[in-house]
Amino acid sequence: MAEALLSAVLEQLVSIITELGKQELRLVKDVEKSVSNLQKKLKDIQAVLEDAESRQLDDRSVRRWLDKLKDVSYDINDVLDDWSSEILKSQIPNPAEEEEGDHHQKADLVSSRMMMKKKVCFPSASCCFCLNQLKQVGVRLEIAHRIKELSVTLDEIAKEKDAYSLEKTKNASPKERRETTSFVYESDVDGRDEDKKLVISKLLSDESSDKGPVIIPIVGMGGLGKTTLAQLVFNHEKIKSHFNKRIWVCVSDPFDEVRIAKAIIESLIASHANLDTLEALSHRIRECIEGKKFLLVLDDVWSDDREKWEKLIQPLRCGAVGSKVLVTTRKSEVANMMGVPMSQVINPALLSEDHCWKIIKRLAFGERNGEELKQLEGVGKEIAKKCKGLPLVAKTLGGLLFSKETSKEWEDVLSSKLWELQDEQSKIFAPFFLSYNDLSPRQKRCFSYCSVFPKDFEIDRNNLIEMWMSHGYLSGSPQDMETEGEKCFKILTMRSFFQDFKRDVDVDGRISSCKMHDILHDFSPIFDKK
Questions:
Q1: Cis previous bond, 254, omega within 30
Q2: How many domains does the chain fold into?
Q3: In terms of domains, do 142 and 106 share one?
Q4: Can you give the residue range of the structural domain that contains 160?
Q5: Could you give the 3-state DSSP secondary structure of residue 397?
Q6: In a domain, 180, yes or no
Q7: How far apart are CA 140 and CA 134, in angstroms?
Q8: Strands 245-252, 459-460: parallel, antiparallel or unpaired by DSSP?
């Protein structure tokens, strides 16, 4: 995120310097030298940021240096905002100044008529004007002082970067990315046929429990495709016809029984008006499902708090025999807390390298011809080994490789130093960082902004673009900003940063909303800590 933030600051700094040149609007003596120093140091630092952001995943000292840089960048951004405001104020005609001009004209006329050498003065208008002038000078002095202080701080940060031997990034001219006319549908799932059959067979079985609905946990690491597997099963025709009611709730963290109960009722009757207590909500759930065979999917469960679980499951025990609760979780402790025997737990296997390659190939090649496939297949299969069997990683790398057209570019992905990270958490994020690092600074800002939404939040596409516009992440006229926002959303979608798409059937099947995978939700704030 530091690169994206620094790019925005430089953009604003250049804009202000240009405006100053046009209007000859200055702050105080020598401040222009501090401004030029800011610009030069920022550009010097920007040249090594790509290497710094890569190394921060495995080097805490570089991470701390980037944090300092982000802090001072925010401070520079604040002072530039204040300076921009001063420029705008200077463009607004001052009524007192205009009034004084009129008075002077009248005074000159009287003076010439009376042949007086003494200057005529009208204190009320001119004093007001002088006070405004003094106020403006005071504000500009303060801004100038802040700029000089920030320039000194940035000098120290710029000197500190030399201790890390950061490599400069070559400024390659940006390439026009190949366009596509369609997006990847979630129905394009590879390597999960056996898992899907197993889950469906368990859901359709006559197995019952005297303690309530049968609980079937899907347990596995993040990015394994647990939610996708649950979605495939939930929407299967056999499942639709087997259960009277189907309910989907994303639980996430924290485990809020009231919120979950409300979500269950919304799915059943679309309203929970005047129901605010867990007791009232539980009573309504009991009324809705009593004697009915239901399937409840609880996606992304983290809490292993037995007491909270009992409160939630209690009203579900009045459903018909054959009712099931399908749970997805990363933690085996959750399945243990629910009292599920090991034989009932489903642990999806990692995908084979061939299946990972199929996902990458489908996303990366699009409409490329067979000759290109032959040239890139060897290195592509080596990259598929980096997925470690995780479909989310395969999707992310496939989206990245879509924009890489030569063997050299594919080789660069394969030989990236990011694959050599030692920290375990950093290893998980390495493939996502590869894709993130390939975005433009503007696209990085737009992606990082998405971390403000809660996990599993349905993000409206048009609202998101408007939010990017209102925060100044896009530039140009309103129409230009909207076009840029559309392009940014499309690129982030192609990179598999978004998922769970809903489409507008009235507008050529265009995406109307989406969600972020919880791993990517965890990933995005890493570069936006403030």
A1: yes
A2: 3
A3: yes
A4: 2-164
A5: helix
A6: no
A7: 10
A8: unpaired
Nearest Cα neighbor of 406 from 380, 433, 427 is 380
Alpha carbons 411 and 132: distance in angstroms, whole number: 63
- Residues 229 and 121 occupy one common structural domain: no
Residues 359 and 340 in one domain: no
Token couple for 330: 């990363």
Backbone dihedral angles phi then psi of residue 346, each to the nearest 5 degrees: -105, 125
Q: Give the ranges where 256-369 is alpha helix by DSSP (H).
A: 257-269, 278-289, 306-313, 332-337, 353-365
Same domain, 277 and 358: no
Residues 436 and 303 in one domain: no
Quick one: pLDDT band at residue 22, thresholds 50, 70, 90?
Answer: very low
The string of pLDDT tens digits covering residues 73-84 is 888 878 777 777
pLDDT per residue as tens digits for the range 463-478: 999 999 988 888 778 8
Q: Supply 329's token pair.
A: 């979780």
Residue-wise pLDDT tens digits, 125-163:
444 444 455 455 566 677 777 878 888 888 888 888 888
CB 151 within 8 A of CB 38: yes
**Residue 146 and residue 525: Cα distance in Å, rounded?**
28
Is there a single domain that holds both residue 517 and residue 384? Answer: yes
- Residue 215: phi and psi, rounded to 5, are -105, 130
Backbone angles phi, psi at 319, to 5 degrees: -70, 165
For residues 205 and 243, is the Cβ–Cβ distance under 8 A?
A: no
Is residue 184 in a domain? no
If asked whether residues 262 and 134 sit together in one domain, one would say no
| Torsion angle in degrees (nearest 10) through CA of 288, 310, 336, 203 | -10
Pair (512, 370) in one structural domain: yes
